[in-house]
Each structure stands twice: as C-alpha cells, then as structure tokens.
Specification:
The protein has eleven helices and 14 strands. The termini are far apart. The N terminus is likely disordered. The strands form four sheets. It has a four-stranded mixed beta sheet, with no helix packed on it. Helix 3 runs antiparallel to helix 4, helix 4 packs antiparallel against helix 5 and helix 6 runs antiparallel to helix 8. Helix 9 links the parallel strand 11 and strand 12. The protein has 380 residues and is α+β, with helices and mostly antiparallel strands. The chain is globular.
Length: 380
C-alpha cells in the first residue's frame, strides 16, 4: 500500500482552510510603517451592518466574518481624509466567501491593490462596461459646440449610444442575477429603464437576492402607482408653523406642487427661491405647495423653515414616526418609516404636480418643465 506523505506546513494550511465556514471570508492586508494603528472594515452580512476594527501588527492585519450566499460589498478605511469628501482613505470592495489579499496604498487607500475576490473582478468588468460607447457619446456632445447646426442629429445619435449602454448593463445584470455585483448595478439603474424591463430582471433574480432586497421591489411597486393619472399617494404630518396636522388629500380642489427637499441638500436649497416664485405667481389662482423634507434633525428643519419664508407652504417631514432623541435626531430612519418611498424618491430635489382631483400629472424633469406645465395650467 502506498502512503501519501503531506508536509506539516501543508496540513496546517489545509486545516486553516477547513476551519473557515462555507460562507466565511478572510481579508489579509499588508501595509508598511503603520504598526499599532487601526484599520476599519464595514460591510453588510445580509441581516445587519457590521463594523469591525483591528490593529496593524508587523505590517499586517486580518478581518474575518461571514457573508450571504450572493456576496456583499464593504469598505476598508485607513487614516484620515486629506480633503472633505474625497474618500481617498477608503477602499470599496465586493467579495464573497473568499480569501482576499489587499495591499494598502497609504497615499491613496482607494487605489489599493486587491486580489482573490471574484466579485471584485466582476465589478471591475461592470464598471467599464460600455466605456467606448460613452466615449463616443461624450464626443458627440462636444461636437455640438463646434457644429450647433447638427445638434438634433448628434443628440439623436448620442441617445442611441446611451440606450445601447443601458442594454449592455441589463445583459450584465441578467448574467449576474445570483450575485451582489449584478444586484448592486440593478439598484442603480432600475429607475432608468422601462418598468417592464425592470420587472423582467427582478423576476430573474435568485430567491436569496429577492429575500434580501428592500429597494427594487418597493421601487417597482411605487413606479406603478405614480404614473400620470394615478391618485397621488397620501402624504401627511405635523406642520410646526401652522401648528396642525396636514394631509395632501385635504388639498383636493387645488393644484399642488410637492417639493421633496432637505436643508442638507445644496441643490434643494438653491431651488427654493424658484419654488417661492411659482407660489407667489400662482397661489391666488389655486396653487399650493407641500414641502416634504428628508432632514434627519427636526430642530435643524424647524429653524430653517421658520427663518426662510416657508410659512405659506405646508411643511412636513418624510417620516411617519417622528420620534427624536435628546438632540432632535429622528430615531427611526428606516425606509419603511419614510413617506417618500411611495413616490420612489431616490434623490432630491424632486417635484410632482397634483391636479385638483388629487391625481398625479406628468412629472416635470426640471425647473423648465415645471414652469411650462404651470404656465399651461394657469394660462400665463
């Protein structure tokens, strides 16, 4: 009988591999000249958001944990940002039940080299999907500046290239319907593709991803309910300036402009003077404004609306439950507590116009379309 002799080192390595759960991961990191300093890692394990911290020793660090069967996304952070919001001290990472190696680039953590993650490789592929199409698309827009007489032709070609890119993304999502990379791309583009295509891609997701999803199914449901002519979903809350509970449905008989905004949103604040112009112009003709804020601190919101001439509007928060802590922060910021989900709000500012019967009109895409719609409604 022949006997296979296995070196002790190999046995130890095999034992280490076997000791890792089937859904477990190991991240081995290296970094020079940082012994004794912390490294932070945060990720979604499928049921909760995990935040972990380890100390660098001998130029190395290790994180371990478990991931859902479809993988996840996390962030490794070392050091401080050199400038606000640059993110150069953070590396995003897609990963599954892998053994991953990361060599931290102290100068720019975002550029750190990662190996061993098949999902990160898929993410890199998806991120560069359609690069050549987009290069051609942007070149066409640049050409319009030189040949303005061809604006219509070039814009049509650019739109065609954009649609091709969207088709490539949809194909990528369908091919990655069982992993987090495909799901993450789906979340990003789901509102920018036809609803029927969104439904088809959602039906193709793995059962595990469908059970995990808290975004796309809600978006599909909301999109079906906010089409032009549909009854406007109810919005309600306590208006601290009027000192009363208000409901959108109480404003039937009026045209209503709903403005989704927040004090922390620079674009929203910049748009408020335009909202005031519209209110001043059309209020006597039957226009009301419901300003629904996504502020996280009730005191910040109250101070702003009381000092920025917003008393004529109906001012409410997006939260159904407005319980706050001792600093005025909303305690429950979960999506299920946000009324804006009924309007599929993913970004702000956003506006909707409701007719006197309480039905949604065509949603304006920007200030110009809002002006045009109200001009058509009121005749001036």
């Amino acid at each position: 009988m022949k006997h296979l002799l296995v070196p002790a080192a190999a046995l130890l390595a095999l034992a280490a591999c076997n000791s890792r759960p089937a859904n477990g991961f190991v991240i081995n990191g290296t970094i020079d000249g940082a012994d004794g300093e912390p490294v932070y890692f945060s990720y979604d394990n499928g049921t909760e958001f995990i935040s972990d911290t380890v100390t660098i020793a001998d130029g190395k660090f290790t994180f371990t944990g478990e991931v859902p069967p479809f993988g996840t996304h996390g962030y490794i952070k070392y050091g401080e940002e050199k400038e606000p919001h640059t993110g150069d001290n953070t590396k995003g990472l897609y990963f599954g039940a892998d053994e991953i190696n990361i060599d931290i680039n102290k100068g720019n953590v975002m550029e750190s080299a990662v190996t061993g993650s098949s999902l990160q490789a898929k993410s890199d592929e998806g991120r560069h999907l359609g690069d050549s199409l987009n290069d051609m698309r942007f070149a066409l827009y640049d050409s319009i500046k030189v040949y303005p007489e061809k604006k219509e032709e070039y814009e049509a070609r650019a739109t065609e290239l954009f649609n091709q890119w969207k088709e490539m993304q949809c194909d990528f999502i369908a091919a990655n319907s069982d992993n987090y990379v495909g799901y993450d791309m789906f979340k990003i583009i789901s509102d920018n593709i036809p609803l029927e295509v969104t439904k088809k891609l959602y039906d193709g997701l793995s059962p595990e991803l469908k059970a995990y999803d808290k975004v796309i199914a809600q978006s599909i449901d909301a999109r079906g309910k906010i089409a032009p002519g549909m009854p406007a979903p109810e919005l309600k809350g306590y208006d601290p300036l009027r000192e009363q509970e208000v409901k959108l449905s109480d404003l039937k008989g009026k045209y209503v402009l709903i403005d989704f905004w927040a004090t922390w949103c620079k674009g929203c604040v910049m748009e408020l003077p335009h909202i005031k112009e519209l209110y001043d112009k059309y209020h006597d003709k039957g226009l009301e404004v419901v300003a629904l804020s996504k502020d996280y601190n009730i005191n910040t919101w109250k101070e702003y609306i009381s000092t920025h001439d917003m008393a004529p509007y109906y001012n409410i928060l997006t939260y159904s439950d407005t319980t706050v802590d001792d600093k005025g922060n909303i305690v429950n910021d979960e999506m299920e507590n946000r009324q804006c989900r009924f309007y599929n709000i993913k970004f702000i500012p956003r506006t909707f116009i409701v007719d006197p019967e309480g039905n949604l009109m065509t949603q304006p895409k920007d200030e110009e379309e809002t002006d045009a719609m109200l001009k058509e409604i009121f005749g001036f």
